[in-house]
Amino acid sequence: MDLETSLRRPQPVHEATLPDGLLSVSLFRHQKIALAWMLQKENSVACSGGILADAEGLGKTISIIALIQMHKSSSTSKLVDPCVSEAEVMDLDDNVDEGKQAGESAEQKLITRQFCSRKPPAGSLVVCPARVLRQWARELDEKVADGAKLEVLIYHGGNRTKDPAELAKYDVVLTTYSIVAKEVPTKTSAEDDDKLDGDVHRLSSEFANKKRKNSHVSKEGKKGRKGVHSSAVDYTGTLAKVHWFRVILDEAQTIKSSSTQVSRSCCGLRAKKRWCLTGTPVQDSIDELLSYFRFLKCEPYTKYKCFCNQIKIPISRNEAHGYLKLLAVLKAIMLHRTKDTLIGGKPIVPSKTINWTTLDFSAEERAFYLKLEAESVCDSSYMFLTTLLQAYAAAGTVKQNYANILAMLLHLRQACDHPFLVNGFRSNDMQANLLNLLETDPPEDTVIPICGHIYCHQCVVEYLKGKVNKCPSSDCKSQIGSDVVFTKDTLRSCISNDDHYECSSKNEERSSIFQDNYASSKIRATLDIIQSHCRTKISSSAGNGNTCSSSGLEAEGPIKTIVFSQWTRMLDLVERSLNQHCIGYRRLDGSMSLVSRDWAVKEFSTDPEVMVMLISLKAGNLGLNMVAASHVILLDLWWNPAAVDQAIDVAHRIGQTRPVTVSKLTIKDTVEDRIFILQEEKRAMVASAFDEGQSGSSVTSLTEEDLEYLFMGA
């Protein structure tokens, strides 16, 4: 099919009819359309499966459960011989080594056939992040009708079965990406063939260790049956020994990096049908699509060279035409709808309003922030950090020092939330540590570069006159220059300037904004929003309780709020203020067990006195369902808009009956202004791949120019 024909292909509109008695819930129209599309794709010869890329919260899980129910009899009664066709394992290293031989040796093919013959046919395997494992089990139980229950196994934990025949008994097996990475080997590259001496599969670390332990096996033992390496089969995990009817990757963006073990292992799973579920198939780079093509066996784009020649290079040469070509490819294998997509003239989900609330610091907060980002020489802290960034840029080592630069940005971003997050951060800490090293070293006239190694001043001066700009220490490759080599007097001067600034500051500043009981500008704004939603007067008296009276609430229930932050310490500070104002809340962060998380979500969803849910961004932006909330507050920004969108989608999803309001809090004239610009540029890049009315952008991650912009602006 040519490009023009592919682009004219309309969105599917045909709806599948699900037989009565299979589900306990009714499908929405867009889910019936998705079911019909998936049924058609599973009958496709070229690519048996695809990418269901509906926006987060549109009910992809229910659509997949309906698909499993429709094909339940097929997956359990029609046993397929996995060795009728050629082995499915592909060369996952072709982007590293293009010199791989085209065919396998006769011995390798024999091993592959025997490996296949050991795989019993089974039902559907669902691979998902650990945090949504039990949610999948709950959905499979609650959404399936009593008379059509599925046999479901959670394959997780140390006591999981090692018998593949046991797995094959179940209609659905639920497991995690980490388990797949441990149990499913991946094919070797040409450079590893000599090391493994003909083995067909690269072993994951767990099995590679076992093989090394058994390296004393005799040659006779190795040959086994007619020269076949017994290790070819024995050192694979249970998941790899099953030939699945269907494999489903939930939150499939987990495999976005094609070189990772988890991505390669998922591609190594054996299955007739393959599905990727993700609301964000592209987060940072078009390169992420390569993993999807490989998992889906979508030829010819599984080969890195072809992927580059037909997709990546055309985009780099002509963005407009290149993205159109990519769109034509994706339309054949991907169904993508947003919450604004019209079905029957109406949007799939009630509207969402995003409010950018720009706040200003208090005088004390602004003074503290300016201390971190000052332009005057007296404020040596920022000058010290800026000098480092300029030194890295001049030496061409920004990427090598990426982590150091992000650490610099971290303090600026945290200061926008609350000065306490910087933990009483004094900008001269680094200088003081370097000075301490110098003063405890015996030689005279010593200097110290940023890496911390101590040298004679005269020696370093002579050394830097040459072309070498690396630390002289043999085990240190840090880039150094005259502007990042410090004497005792220089460091003492920096620290003295900072101390003078602190001493001249008001004592009240130290006793207020740096205390954990101080309500920062963002915390005060958050409380104002939450209190505006309460239908009753909230007590302002301090107390240890975390509930408030709910009498007088309207019949439809309270307006509940989810508060997101990237930092758990910020959530601690918000929590303190909620307690002081007697506002009911629950919390969800990465330190909690799965049981505790489930309890918190249930309480928030069902208890009318619980008005607020505090969630850390990383712990709560995947797969959660909290439609009890109709307001979302984002306390801080991240330059990857996909992560932010996923956080919002815990409330703005199928089942939501109210319009959702999102408040994004930012501080005026800070680094957050610049993060917003980068977010929009990344969003444009993703939109161009999905034909969402934006022009393309080459921005994929934080470049050197991005970092300089975040620090110093235009």
From TrEMBL:
Keywords: ATP-binding, Hydrolase, Metal-binding, Nucleotide-binding, Zinc, Zinc-finger. CDD domains: DEXDc_SHPRH-like (cd18008), SF2_C_SNF (cd18793). InterPro entries: Helicase_ATP-bd, Helicase_C-like, P-loop_NTPase, SNF2-like_sf, SNF2/RAD54-like_C, SNF2_N, SNF2_RAD54_helicase_TF, Znf_C3HC4_RING-type. Pfam families: Helicase_C, SNF2-rel_dom, zf-C3HC4. The keyword Cell inner membrane does not apply. One of its GO terms (cellular component) is nucleus. One of its GO terms (biological process) is DNA repair. Residues 522-708 form the Helicase C-terminal domain. The keyword Repressor does not apply. Residues 210-228 have a biased composition (Basic residues). One of its GO terms (molecular function) is ATP-dependent activity, acting on DNA. Residues 41-299 form the Helicase ATP-binding domain. This is Uncharacterized protein. It comes from Centaurea solstitialis.
